[in-house]
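new request in #modeling-help
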Amino acid sequence: MSGALIELVNVRKSFTRGGLLSHRRVQAVDDVSFRIAADDPVIFTIIGESGSGKSTLARMILNITPPTSGSIVFRGRDLSTIRGGADRTAFMAAVQPIFQNPFEAFNPLKRLDHYLHVTARRFTGAKGQAVEQRTDEVLRQVGLSLAEVRGRFPHELSGGQLQRVAIARALVSRPALIVADEPVSMVDASLRMAIVNLFRGLRDDLGISIVYITHDLATAYYISDELMIMQKGKVVEAGAARPILSDPQHPYSRQLKDAVLSPALAGARDGANGGSDARPFHAS
Amino acid sequence: MSAPVPAVPSAAAAAAPVPAAPVLSVQDLKAYYRTRYFGVTRDVRAVDGVSFEVRAGEIYGLAGESSSGKTTLIKAIAGAIRPPLEVVGGTMTFSFLPGSPGLHRASPAEVAGIRWRHLSYIMQGSMNVLNPVRRVKHSFDDFAFRHMGLARSAFWAEVEAHLARVDLDPSVLAAYPHELSGGMRQRVTIALATLCRPEFVIADEPTTALDVLVQKTVLGMIRSVQREIGSSLLFVTHDMGVHAALTDRLAIMYAGRLAEEGRTAEIFARPRHPYTRHLVGSLPRIGDASERKSLDGTPPNLADPPPGCRFHPRCPLAMDVCRREQPAMIADGPDHRVACFAVHPQSEGHP
């Protein structure tokens, strides 16, 4: 058994809601444990609806918020022991986020190359020419180039291009782990598979493990190695991705799979059975 | 030059067997965002020569990515034209507004008589329809009461009966929008949009913001209400899975023009246009982990679209003619049209 890249043990997070009189605790994440091995890069997918606690979990892995109880250990070090600027920077270099909406991830008044240059200077210690070299290198890894991005503002790029720039920015520091929170839900259909294929490439070519958070079971099936389904903060099913998605056991997982609107439904109406009853929506 | 508003048919008449004529017929519609600076006119050709018909009682799907012009198209159809958007050419004829080139030419009084009564919308953000500082019942009062021609008590009885169709308790009427969940709010807007049994309903990504489980419920309700009141529905979304499950016919829009149109099942089973083929072929499916190709390049800038077919820079089948001329929409089998030189070499020469 090799060492863990990241290991979560009985992680819980609760929030307090309401004022003095209507005091209520909400368990956003309730007893979640999983580990990602250090030597075998994987795409680890977390599936759940809004309110299932998946984004809170992502924020805890990124060390943005601390867990209420339980431990998160990254490369043998508990995240709660990370203190001080140097430690924090080293952690941030190794664990990078990609957010849902690329239009909100970038300041609309700043040029995109500025973000990449600042990240390169801060995390790689590069100066002068080396900054541009590193920036161009990561942009090429996502299918862009510095020449295309230089001097451009976020609104000048399409959502798909912008999400690629966000991925390039995350790659600058040569991370070991990327936490991607719904990275394709704002991206157009024709560009979505390009982003998803890019994640595969990061895993296979650069050896980066990815925590892929989504509610889309179809892309999860396409790229995931391991998978965890969450409902109201609890893990209801976890394990190897494809067996779970092919044959989910928990009632909630089955419900999720049944709700997937598969392109195969289009043929149901004209199928041999005839009638519209074969389709999921019919007048009661 | 304004056509008179036709008499309001009774609810029974609206539910009667559907006429053969289309509810909406769009002919060669051109809607541009037109800006003029120092005498220089600049057009963003968001909708550029689109023709289609929506038949009575059907769900007509419109698919396309962002910046393909689908929102501009429904703005034009709904008559929600604000500068710099202009309808530069073409007509949009409604069955309930015969002789008129479209709502953008109708007077404010005519539009007020048509909206909600004959044409209504289900929007993506339910909060944009419901007034956040007023209880839900006021929204029903504001939008629908004057169209229904009912006494107060009969009106509220009808509202409550209609809310039951989308599985909502009458108590939601007393709630503020923020007190309801996203799914409940979207059901309220569906009830609001269909209360007056309009002939034509536009749904603009109504379930995109909802969770998968809620989305399925809401889509089912849209379907059952649409069947019950016999409306035609123009359903706009980029989600091909939703189209597969819900729509009867489907049009694929790319860069301001229609690429292909046909029965939904046919589009998914035998897509003709290279763009449609890519859209359908790249959909990930559970149980199939084979490599999905992605399309190179990005959608064109509509202020300066490429000459010829707008898809040619990304098209694997692009030929010389594609770079020079625009392909016309040409029939390809029953109920199927496609605009592609690779599918119809003979379409060369047509404008």
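bot summary: Residues 1-19 of chain B have pLDDT under 50 and may be disordered.
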